[in-house]
């Protein structure tokens, strides 16, 4: 046995002494090295047999290779005329398997910091990776992200939720706040689907118009109900692209905004009087309660009452539907849950050096979160039958009946 051959007896002694199979100084690392080098030598032999030129072996070169069982020096055989192209470990390849990349991407998708990723990789595989290496690995997501952002979408979505979340991104040497526009849809099967992420300088109805135009260009021809926050001009922006879409303003947003303008000493009483408005069983009952709210508080808080009256057409859409549809559309909670996941991913980041560094992290998080979106929402078949009646003809051709 050559001194470089894997010694099974020695390996057994190392295992009995508590040495690990993988990672730094792993028992299996010399075996993987030996098998890899043997395979490369066999590749060279085959190459020389098929080579008609007077070619021959020409020693070997060394390079450090990272593998899932540890890091080792690999002797790569060479030929005289340099025509040998190894396939198992290519000339510039420094990783033996994609497992390390997958582990880095998995940790990245959980929002793990680069420093902690480096620690975990070294602990698992005994390999030191630089931040530049981690960036290069995670940059593999960018082409997939671009493809995902431009993919074709379904023709009809019964529900969509639209909202924005803000992050600090470096721009011309300084960090500025930018808005990430998020669109969450509920498809015809009742399953959640993130339709897109868009990045802009700030949140505004004008930019939402361009986002909705992009949705239309990607194949979305009809949206039954859109649930949005109270941004001025939002319903009008939606109507310009999807004129038949019913727009429900988020009631929770409206309540929060209202309470900002109510004195703290009156907030509990005001809230008790407001509940009959948004918790009413019918739209008529809600309007009666809103009139009572105006009669009692209108002179003291005209700004608040006027806001409810002015937006009432879009705040009251959910009263047209039974409870199991109301719960879905009266608030933007569904998309805020997605944003909570985003915040978990980004909580260790004070800011981002560029737009791609943010978007690839959010995309990785989407891939992770969407694995759980396998079941339709509760009572979906009932909801769909109600929608088919309410929006007569608009689900024809997309329902499998």
TrEMBL record:
Which NCBIfam families did the record assign?
A: transpos_IS256 (NF033543)
Organism in which the protein naturally occurs: Thiomicrorhabdus heinhorstiae
Q: Which region ranges are annotated with the description Disordered? A: 47-88
What the record says about family reads:
Belongs to the transposase mutator family.
Q: Report the function annotation for this chain.
A: Required for the transposition of the insertion element.
Q: What is this protein called?
A: Mutator family transposase
Per UniProt, which keywords does this protein have? DNA recombination, DNA-binding, Transposable element, Transposition
Show the InterPro entries listed in the entry: Transposase_mutator (IPR001207)
One Pfam family for this entry, by name?
Transposase_mut
